[in-house]
Amino acid sequence: MISMIRRRAFLGAAATGGLALVAGCTGGSNPGGGSGNGNGNGGAAIEETSSVSMTGSQFDPRNIHVDTGATVTWTNDDGFDHTVTSASDNWDKDSSVAGGEETTHTFEESGVYDVYCTIHGGSDLSGMSMKVGVGDTAIESPLGGGSSGDDDGGGMY
Predict the structure, then answer these.
(1) Do 130 and 52 contact (CB within 8 A), yes or no?
(2) For residue 150, what is the DSSP state?
(3) Domains in the chain, number
(4) Alpha-carbon Rg for the chain in angstroms
(5) What pLDDT, on the 0 to 100 scale, is given for residue 144?
(6) pTM: predicted TM-score of the whole model, two decimal places
(7) Which domain holds residue 75?
(8) For residue range 3-50, what is the model confidence (pLDDT) as tens digits?
(9) Running DSSP on this structure, what letter comes out for residue 142?
(10) Do 114 and 141 form a contact (C-beta atoms < 8 A)?
(11) For labelling, which of 38, 53, 93, 154 has a CA lying 20 to 30 Å from the CA of 59?
């Protein structure tokens, strides 16, 4: 009788632990956020922020999400010039940003906006480039991270 009670207690505990493991494997509702997102991009993160640093000839972070109507600020933390230039047809921006300076843009419509530096990147999002997801639009293919160049999706040519 005691052994039957212990067996039932053990099986109940094992079942509860198994449910906890399965529950821990389900994803959250962050629009494309987090690492290991299944896009084959090495787990590129999408950060909820409106502040972007230009440092080491990279945008940091490379993928951001903001609410519609938010103003994004790009700050040049390098000692040389960069640009913040639109690489997609849904917006128009081409600002030169000297070291220590910043530029802003207010995104009024939902969408994914591609950005690059004309000095250190290309409109094909090679080199110094990033994506801005706005509103309820998810970034389907976030840019990879890393500092070793285009193979890891960032850095200088």
Answers:
(1) yes
(2) G
(3) 1
(4) 22
(5) 86
(6) 0.68
(7) 47-152
(8) 555 555 545 555 554 444 444 444 344 444 443 444 344 457 999 999
(9) P
(10) no
(11) 38
Q: Which two tokens stand for residue 19?
A: 């449910």
Nearest to 99 by CA among 81, 85, 117, 116: 81
Tell me the C-alpha distance between 13 and 2, whole Å: 17
Mention every residue, 6+ apart, whose C-beta is less than 8 A from residue 33: 45, 46, 47, 48, 65
Q: Which residues contact 41 (CB under 8 A, 6 or more apart)?
A: 141, 142, 143, 144, 153
- Using DSSP, state whether 126 is helix, strand or coil: coil
- Rounded Cα distance between 70 and 91, Å, is 15
What single-letter amino acid sits at 59? F
CATH of the domain at 53: 2.60.40.420
CB 121 within 8 A of CB 90: no
Contact 76, 59 (CB under 8 A): no
For the stretch 56-94, pLDDT in tens is: 999 999 999 999 999 999 999 999 999 999 999 999 999
In a domain, 30, yes or no: no
